[in-house]
Amino acid sequence: MWKDFFYYSRSERRVILLLLGMLVILGISWLICHKVYKPEYVRQEDSAEIDSFLASVKQREVSYAKRNYTASGVRKGQEVVLFDFNPNTADSVQLKKLGLPSFVVRNILRYREKGGVFRTPEAFARIYGLKEEQYLLLKPYIQIPPREESKQDSVYEQVKIQRIEKYPEGTLVSLNEADTTQLKRIPGVGSAIAKMIVAYRNRLGGFVCLEQLQEIPHVDASLNKWFTIQSAPFRKIRVNKDGLDKLRNHPYMDFYKAKAILEYRRKRGNIKGLSRLSLFEEFTEKDLQRLSPYLSFE
């Protein structure tokens, strides 16, 4: 029976031989890699030489900086002219003459472009990149007028809100002609609602009844008493000429209605009148009632 335990078929013997061969190859590869790529350890003497080299490089960098810059932080060879200056108005040429590096000058100009104001000499000292030695050298020459010292160091200026005089009770405004300035004089109408009324009027092509105002969000029916409609729509939908974008842009139209009109025009020609549109399943009776004042079949 023990012979059966150690009996392997031909395919099993092939697999065993293949695995044994792979193990032998891996063992040989490990020995070769271990001998060829044997890690080299840095000796203590070599480590000391490396540290000495790095220290000499750092020393050369410090020496270069000392040779090219004075104790005040001004680059040697640069002509420095000290004079009274206002950091809120001095241009780049003046700032460079004072010995300030180019990147510090750029930081000053960017700060001023964003609305920043230097109210005190100490505020000038906080500019990024400005060394303390440079600031102490320039401090006696910083001249800031008193009116600028009182200004707030802010990007935004305070805007006075002008009070708008409202219309008296009983005033009527032409709904199809009034601009936002006139609309804002109506009690209960602010800038946002005035803009929405004008925008919706432009999309419609003009109002035909006051109740259309309630199609605009946040417009209450109580505002209707301030308006009158004295003119017909100033722009109509050209059913037989307008393209898809113009047709669908009207509040009472949509993509499917516009597409149906274009398909009919492509297959059968111009649409003669409202009765033809009533045959389209995309148009309900309510749609046709609302659209009729705005349609042109020319």
What does this structure look like?
Pfam families: HHH_3. It comes from Phocaeicola plebeius. This is Helix-hairpin-helix domain-containing protein. The protein is an all-alpha fold and 298 residues long. Among the domains are: 86 residues, no CATH class; 56 residues, AF1531-like domain (DNA polymerase, domain 1); 60 residues. It contains 14 helices and four strands. It has a two-stranded parallel ribbon with strand order 1-2. The chain has a two-stranded parallel sheet with strand order 3-4. The longest helix has 27 residues.
Summarize the helix and strand pattern as letters. HHHHHHHHEHHEEHHHHE
Q: Give the quaternary arrangement of the chains.
A: single chain
> What general outline do the C-alpha atoms trace?
flat
Strand content: under 5%
Please provide the count of β strands. 4
N- to C-terminal distance? 106 Å
- What class do helices, strands and sheet pairing give? mainly alpha
Radius of gyration: 42 Å
Main sheet: strand order: 1-2
What composes the largest sheet? 2 strands, parallel
The number of distinct helices, counting runs of at least 4 residues, comes to: 14
